[in-house]
Write a structure and sequence with these properties.
The complex is a heterodimer of chains A (295) and B (300). With 295 residues, chain A is mainly α. Chain A has 13 helices and no strands. Classes of the chains: A mainly alpha (295), B mainly alpha (300).
Amino acid sequence: MTAEAEQLTAHRPAPVAPRVHKGRYSLARTLKYVGLIFFLIVVLIPVYVLLVTSFKGTGDADPSRAWALPQIWTMENWATAWTTLAPAIGRTLAIVVPSSIISAFLGSLNGFVLSRWSFKGADIVFTLILFGMFIPYQAVMIPLTQLVLNLGIPTGVPTLIMLHVVYGIPITTLIFRNYYSTVPHELIEAGRVDGAGMLRTYWSIVLPISIPSFVVVLIWQFTSAWNDFLFAVFFSSSQNGPVTVALNNLANGALLQNYGVSMAGALFASLPTLIVYIILGKYFVGGLMSGSVKG
Amino acid sequence: MLNKLRRVGPPLLMLAPSLILLGVFVYGLIAANFTTSLTDNHTAAQATGQKPAVLVWFTNYIDLLASEDFQHSLMNLVLYTVVFLVGTMIMGFLWAWMLEKPVKGEGLFRSVYLFPMAVSFVASGVVWRWLLNSNQDEQASGLNRLFQIVGLDALQNNWWNNVTFGIIAIAIPAIWQLSGYVMALFLAGFRGIPEELREAARMDGASEWKLYRHVLFPQLSPVALSALIIIGHMSLKAFDLIMSISKPANYQTKVPAVDMFVFKSSFDYANAAAVGSILLIIVAIVIVPYLIRTNREEKR
């Protein structure tokens, strides 16, 4: 059955002629499930590889056993990976938590002003802010290293906090602006009529209804800062940098290549964002959606 | 005058911290980077300011674009971007299309398809380096071994070690990672189409194909454009994957972002800056019209 025929049957409204098309209908359904499960397996292949390899000892090194389960299950790789990466994971938290909170707060202020306390030229200002989201950071990296040096900010955690705050502003502004655009005008006008100033209006009316957006923005910022490698590799080392740099060092390091350890390390490095994704998946997707400019 | 100040003053004051930061860190640094790219700042002594750098105008750009080495990087970027875009759009649309109508276990499929997005390129690069191992036959591990197991021996290849097309192997993990994102965008697009629209088309006797061609596809095209822009500009993220799967020094997989890193590491700031500016121009050609168009549409 061709894909087109499948479309025809799968989407024909059942009530019209359920009996005639029942056979084809269920065949199309079966094909769809086969497809869905096939892709499910394909997407999960790297997960299988990661888990299996991370439990293998040196006895399983032969390539012929590459896809087989471990002969002897060992936790050794996990222990090595943890002791190597634990300090870097701590530093990543120290970078990611403050930078997410600060950039979320700045984004909320900007979003409120740009959508609800607007002024002439606000659109141009917004577009100028938004452009910062799309620039390839390679285009600022050289003078940025010099600026950081001149400002005297130590490399590693402090520099990376600052950079994630600054370069996070465009996306956080975008998400909050889109969200506040959906807030009824009357709500804010009511504040204006009462004579409340802008800050009062923001503090007592806007901020309390912003919780859902804060969750979306915080998750987005947390994930992208946690997974950042570009800024990390330019502004830190495996001694003072986040887990992406430490992991890359572990996997590509001078040590003989031990895939078991680096795969266990890869899982440690991904666990926080995966947990966030599993628990707060709905909000995570919300952030993804706002990544498209129109929100 | 005072009235106007009272109206415009507070909002501008509130925006001020962000505007100053972005003014310096985005626009100021872009200008500074461009200035550096016009000098002969090629040595460590010049990079640290011990020796002066001299203005050479566009010499660095001309030399870069004329060098076979950099042309290879640009070609790799083009190849990577095309494969990455086509791959994620096809997979993303296919998944969204399969999940658009109520399906049992929809939540599970959606979550699994989307989960790679939550993982860093560096972490997935660790696994993909193993999968894309270039050893074959007896020595094969990774995907080459899997091909043997399922009887598709002919598919074995040397992946990113191929000089001309190696970069395409790097696009595979990128497709794995971001197809779910495109799926989520398309799913939101499908769900945003009012049911009445489909009903009306069916009442008019439109076949299912015509329904897609004339009703659903046009409704999805803004989503497709957004996806293209976002995924397209993410192709610059190839840097993370290359750094963790291949090596920055590997000729076969290098792209301009990698060149920039290598120049920076050897204190050739002028060339590093020039590569950065070239990337910026490439991105701006696509992004600026998109931003202007979006801005105009919102006003309507």
